């Protein structure tokens, strides 16, 4: 089962997280504050962002990517898939039941 790593500006993070859970695309989304340093259009930028870790399923992964791309304010949002090697079975069952 995948976890989707997403970065977003603080003012958009809540909407993204709540949309994914409300639409049952993710069972849970964790939010962590961070500072990102990156190159954009030839310049180096430093911005406050939020890391979102969306717990989803293989079947819902493509829908998560499509929905985040649709509502994310960035032209090029960061979405990365991490597949678990090991996960507590009870958590995996809860996640599967929570995502449609």
Explain the overall architecture.
The protein is of the alpha+beta class and 100 residues long. It has one domain: Alpha-Beta Plaits. Helices cover 37% and strands 38% of the residues. It is built from 3 helices and 4 strands. The chain has a 4-stranded antiparallel β-sheet. A hairpin with a 2-residue loop joins strand 2 (28-40) and strand 3. The two termini are 14 Å apart. The model has no long low-confidence stretch (mean pLDDT 95).
Please outline the helices and strands.
Layout lengths: L1 E7 L1 H13 L5 E13 L2 E13 L2 H14 L7 E5 L5 H10 L2
Antiparallel strand pairs: 1-3, 1-4, 2-3
Core attributes:
single chain, 100 residues, alpha+beta, Alpha-Beta Plaits, 4-stranded antiparallel β-sheet
Distance between the termini: 14 Å
Shape: elongated
Instruction: Tell me the number of structural domains.
Output: 1
CATH class wording: Alpha Beta
Protein name: Divalent-cation tolerance protein CutA
InterPro entries: Ion_tolerance_CutA, N-reg_PII-like_a/b, N-reg_PII/ATP_PRibTrfase_C
Organism: Natrinema halophilum
GO molecular function, one term: copper ion binding
Quick recap:
This protein is α+β, with helices and mostly antiparallel strands and 100 residues long.
């Amino acid at each position: 089962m995948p976890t989707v790593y997403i970065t977003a500006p603080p003012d958009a993070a809540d909407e993204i997280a709540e949309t994914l859970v409300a639409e049952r695309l993710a069972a849970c989304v964790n939010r962590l504050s961070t500072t990102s340093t990156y190159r954009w259009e030839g310049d180096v930028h430093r911005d406050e962002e939020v890391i979102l870790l969306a717990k989803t399923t293989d079947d819902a992964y493509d829908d998560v990517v499509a929905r985040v791309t649709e509502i994310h304010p960035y032209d090029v949002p960061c979405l990365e898939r991490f597949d678990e090697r090991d996960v507590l079975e009870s958590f995996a069952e809860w996640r599967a039941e929570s995502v449609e």
